Amino acid sequence: MSRQPDFPIQIFYDGSCSVCATEIEHYLRQDHGGRLIAVNIAAPDFNPEPFSIPLSSFMYELHAIDQAGHVYRGVEAFWAIWQAFPSSTVYGMMGTFINMPVVNPVARLLYKGFASIRPYLPKRHVCDSGTCRIGKKR
Predict the structure, then answer these.
(1) Which domain does 26 fall in, by range?
(2) Looking at the domain assignment, is residue 134 inside a domain?
(3) In this structure, is residue 109 part of a structural domain?
(4) Would you give per-residue pLDDT tens digits along the chain (138 residues)?
(5) If you count DSSP H runs as helices and E runs as strands, how many of each does the chain have, helices first?
(6) Residue 101 forms part of a structural domain
C-alpha cells in the first residue's frame, strides 16, 4: 500500500448505512489510543469543502485522511484503519494479505462491487436527529 498513516486518522463513513456504521463502531470500540476519529458524512452539518473532496466521492467509498493530509480510499482506507492497531496480529495479517499482488486487485474489485450496492443496503432509522453519530454523547 502506501506510506504508514500519521495518526490520528479521520474515517469518513455514511452513518445512515447500517453496515458501514456497524463496521466503524467495531473499530472505534477497539481504539483505546484515540488513533481513529469517526466523521459521519450523512450528518446534516457535514461539509466536504474543507477536504476538497466532493460529497459524492465520500458517499461512493470509504475515505480516511491522516494527520498529514494523506487521503486513503476504499481498500486502502481499511488498510490505514488496520494500522491503528499495531499490536493486533489479526489486523497485521489482514494488512499484509490485502497488499499481496494477487489479492489486492481482487479486493479492490470486490470493494467496488460492494460500493455499487451500498446505497441499497438497510438504512439506520433509530436516531432522534435522523442520522446517527458514532460516539455522540446523549
Answers:
(1) 9-120
(2) no
(3) yes
(4) 668 999 999 999 999 999 999 999 999 999 989 999 999 999 999 999 999 999 999 999 999 999 999 999 999 999 999 999 988 899 999 999 999 999 999 999 999 999 999 988 888 765 555 555 555 443
(5) 5, 4
(6) yes
